[in-house]
Design goal:
The protein folds into three domains: 222 residues, NAD(P)-binding Rossmann-like Domain (Rossmann fold), CATH 3.40.50.720; 88 residues, Orthogonal Bundle (N-(1-d-carboxylethyl)-l-norvaline Dehydrogenase, domain 2), CATH 1.10.1040.10; 133 residues, 3-Layer(aba) Sandwich (Rossmann fold), CATH 3.40.50. Helix content is 46%, strand content 13%. The strands form three sheets. It has a six-stranded parallel beta sheet, sandwiched between helices. A six-stranded parallel beta sheet has the order 11-10-9-12-13-14. A two-stranded parallel ribbon has the order 7-8. Helix 1 packs across helix 3, helix 10 crosses helix 12 and helix 12 packs antiparallel against helix 13. Bound molecules: nicotinamide-adenine-dinucleotide. The site of nicotinamide-adenine-dinucleotide (NAD) has 26 residues, from helix 1 and helix 5. It catalyses: UDP-alpha-D-glucose + 2 NAD(+) + H2O = UDP-alpha-D-glucuronate + 2 NADH + 3 H(+). GO terms for molecular function: NAD binding; UDP-glucose 6-dehydrogenase activity. Pathway: Nucleotide-sugar biosynthesis; UDP-alpha-D-glucuronate biosynthesis; UDP-alpha-D-glucuronate from UDP-alpha-D-glucose: step 1/1.
């Protein structure tokens, strides 16, 4: 099928690349010229395992193109994905201005046959109908007529339908997740649009590119627009709450002398609970959980409902991010004049995304308390990115990081951190203390290398 994906970030680019790999004919549109040039030259602007290889092969077989020309994308696609960012506003609401600009632009270029406009961006509940209205406004603007008569609106609206198709991929395993989804959610009220989306996803549903092809077809959840939009928020709010829950348990474990890793194992084996998202640590972050939980709280507020549980989920997380600093204070007492080394900066491993990473709060708090902060992160060292890192000395390897430190804090559980030369690192430090902010390192290994090991809730 002919597909246009508008917005080539973590979601849009991965969606475009994976759909072209499945045999669809895809044009990706972005208004960032530099990014488009980079992609046209075969390079990916983001780090995501497996993405670059798939992108090359789809480009070589001419099933994947990149452009800044929205008109070209709109006339190409039978299915138009909106995958631009919806970052948080200071109030906690989603900033939907990029979705609005794209919807208007689609309207301005809409012509030819019937199209399905797909909200893949995470958008506030009710956005399906809102996008329809903006597209119609765009059409009216192009025609330079005010579409007020209901008949002319009906005529134009017959040319397209809006579907909500929330995205559940995880950064760091986005390609894998796209080919191996737990479910596909489609929200809308047009049978024709849902049928086209089902056809588009048929190869995924039948697990054509899945790791385990013997699994039954991917479940398809077909529902109304608002329920589809709510499914995305509810999923992220639940996962964030699960992490905040185990972090709260970890804080109690710290005080009573229990080990949260044992507790998590003991409760996670209960099939009603499950073992995922039960790793205690310094909290959740990234581009999705913080903004999506806040946006849901905000929506509830708009409807005169105080989402107390979700507010607590956010508050527990805010405090949890600073628990590593509290542990440093307990250990080193005065932080002024001390040097702290952070192992990892990104909000989780295998991504280069620093949006709302816990590291940023830890750096700000340590700097406020007068500590010197150094950091080593494999992807930051590789890419040289420095966004938001003005208060940190970024080192190029773990040993340079350890040199002269009074303590290390593991912030991101990059796999390679499990096998560092800890004896060498301890010998380079003023004071070999390690705060394991993800309960990821091997305590015995660190202790025999000469470290004092401090985990979260153990
Ligand atoms: N990142 C994730 O893990 C993830 C997972 C699920 C859902 N989501 C949701 O998907 C959406 C996209 O997230 P992302 O992380 O991919 O965003 P992103 O910020 O990485 O990418 C957005 C892209 O849209 C482009 N863009 C902005 N305005 C545009 C316009 N008018 N025309 C063309 N391109 C434009 C930007 O240049 C950028 O390349 C968000 O709503 C997010 O909440 C993200």
């Amino acid at each position: 099928m002919r597909v246009c994906v508008i917005g080539t970030g973590y979601v849009g680019l991965v969606t475009g690349v994976c759909l072209s790999h499945l045999g669809h004919d895809v044009i990706c549109v972005d208004n960032n010229e530099e990014k488009v040039k980079l992609m046209q030259s075969g390079q990916t602007p983001i780090f995501e395992p497996g993405l670059s290889e798939l992108m090359h092969s789809s480009m070589e077989s001419s099933r994947l193109h990149f452009t800044t020309d929205l008109g070209k994308g709109v006339s190409h696609g039978e299915i138009l994905f909106i995958a631009v960012g919806t970052p948080p506003l200071p109030t906690g609401e989603s900033d939907t201005r990029y979705v609005e600009a794209v919807a208007k632009g689609i309207g301005e270029h809409l012509n030819g046959g019937y199209k399905v406009i797909v909200n893949k961006s995470t958008v506030p509940i009710g956005s399906g109908d809102w996008v329809r209205m903006i597209v119609l406004d765009g059409v009216a603007e192009r025609q330079q007529v005010k579409v007020t008569a209901s008949s002319s609106r009906e005529e134009i609206s017959a040319a397209f339908d809006v579907v909500s198709n929330p995205e559940f991929l995880r950064e760091g395993s986005a390609v894998y997740d796209t080919f191996n989804p737990d479910r596909i959610v489609l929200g809308g009220n047009s049978d024709r649009a849902i049928a086209m989306m089902t056809e588009l996803y048929e190869p995924l549903i039948q697990r054509q590119a899945a790791e385990d092809k013997s699994l039954p077809p991917v479940p398809l959840v077909v529902t109304d627009l608002s329920s589809a939009e709510m499914i995305k928020y509810a999923a992220n709010a639940f996962l964030a709450t699960k992490i905040s829950f185990i972090n709260e348990v970890a804080n109690i474990c710290d005080r009573v002398g229990a080990d949260v890793t044992q507790v998590a194992r003991g409760i996670g084996l209960d099939s009603r609970i499950g073992n995922k998202f039960l790793q205690a640590g310094i909290g959740w972050g990234g581009s999705c959980f913080p903004k999506d939980v806040s946006a849901l709280v905000h929506t509830a507020d708009d409807y005169n409902y105080e989402a107390q549980l979700l507010k607590s989920t956010i508050e527990v997380n805010r405090r949890q991010r600073l628990s590593a600093v509290e542990k440093l204070q307990q250990e080193l007492k005065i932080l002024k004049g001390k040097t702290v080394g952070l192992l990892g900066l990104t909000f989780k491993p295998n991504t280069d995304d620093m949006r709302d990473a816990p590291a940023l709060d830890i750096i700000a708090q340590l700097s406020r308390l007068g500590a010197k902060v150094k950091a080593y992160d494999p992807i930051v060292a590789q890419s040289g990115m420095r966004h938001g890192l003005s208060d940190v000395i970024v080192e190029t390897d773990p040993e340079r990081l350890a040199d002269g430190c009074d303590a290390l804090v593991l912030v991101t559980d990059w796999k390679e951190f499990a096998d560092l030369d800890f004896a060498k690192m301890a010998s380079l430090m003023n004071n070999p203390v390690a705060i394991d902010g993800r309960n990821f390192l091997n305590r015995d290994k660190l202790e025999s290398a000469g470290f004092r090991y401090i985990g979260i809730g153990r």
